[in-house]
Amino acid sequence: QQQVKQSPQSLIVQKGGISIINCAYENTAFDYFPWYQQFPGKGPALLIAIRPDVSEKKEGRFTISFNKSAKQFSLHIMDSQPGDSATYFCAASATNKLIFGTGTLLAVQP
Amino acid sequence: DVKVTQSSRYLVKRTGEKVFLECVQDMDHENMFWYRQDPGLGLRLIYFSYDVKMKEKGDIPEGYSVSREKKERFSLILESASTNQTSMYLCASRVTGAPYEQYFGPGTRLTVT
Fold first, then answer.
1. Residue A97 belongs to what H/E stretch?
2. CA distance B2 to B99
3. Is A49 on the interface with B (CB under 8 A)?
4. How far apart, in Å, do the first and last CA atoms of chain B sit?
5. Residues of A in contact with B99 (CB under 8 A)
6. pLDDT for residue A57
7. Which burial class, exposed, middle or buried, applies to B73 when counting CB atoms under 10 A from its CB (0-12, 13-18, 19+)?
8. Residue with the larger pLDDT of the pair B53 and A9
């Protein structure tokens, strides 16, 4: 199975709160799990990525948690800011291409 | 900075027209991709190319073709545009050896009437 399932479709968080976006996959051959961030009018941009042999990766306020046995991974945005308001896509890398989730529209309210 | 440019930000075409979407990258990347982005469906891969004159079908190639005559340029062609091809089209490139790091252009919003 080449799908990556992402939830929720949209998310509203108060400034300073924690935003959590979840993804699940089936194909155990995926070798990287990146997250992309897209602002309105722009193309997606790589935010952070993790390999399946690592359970957590943190870059600033952004953390990926990876559960290999459950085939799930999630993005946590700590101390969410209005500037984090964007669409977030999880993805999985396999055989030279990326399989993207359906996206989560995050709105951080001031 | 890697730059991926797309020929148009907005395009309006009529049903049945042949449509060309152009993408140029300036970082000598071997791999280039065309996606379409639709609400609730995420990014879906149409075609990709890993070298000049090489192409491979993605997940939704029907109704599309591509051309890559030069390393920096990757064109998406809609042979006979239909209304169900109204969408945002995104081009991306990446260097071989960085499997998850794609650089995207700003997108072309295509409307077929």
1. strand A97-100
2. 16
3. yes
4. 37
5. 31-32, 93, 96
6. 96
7. middle
8. A9
Beta-carbon separation of B40 and A93 below 8 A:
no
Is A43 close to B41, i.e. CB distance below 8 A?
no
Distance, CA of B4 to CA of B73 (rounded, Å): 10
Q: In angstroms, what separates the C-alpha of A83 from chain B's closest C-alpha? A: 19
Say if CB B35 and CB B43 are below 8 A apart: yes
Asked if A56 has any chain B CB less than 8 Å from its own CB, the reply is: no
Distance CA A64, CA B34 (A): 27
**Which runs of E-coded beta strand occur in chain B?**
4-6, 10-13, 19-25, 31-38, 42-49, 56-57, 64-70, 73-78, 87-94, 103-104, 108-112
> Is A96 in Cβ contact with B42 (below 8 Å)?
no
Least CB-CB distance to B104: which of A32, A33, A44?
A44
AA letter at B42: G
- The identity of residue B12, as a single letter, is V
Q: Each residue of B34-89: pLDDT tens digit?
A: 999 999 999 999 999 999 989 999 999 999 999 999 999 999 999 999 999 999 99
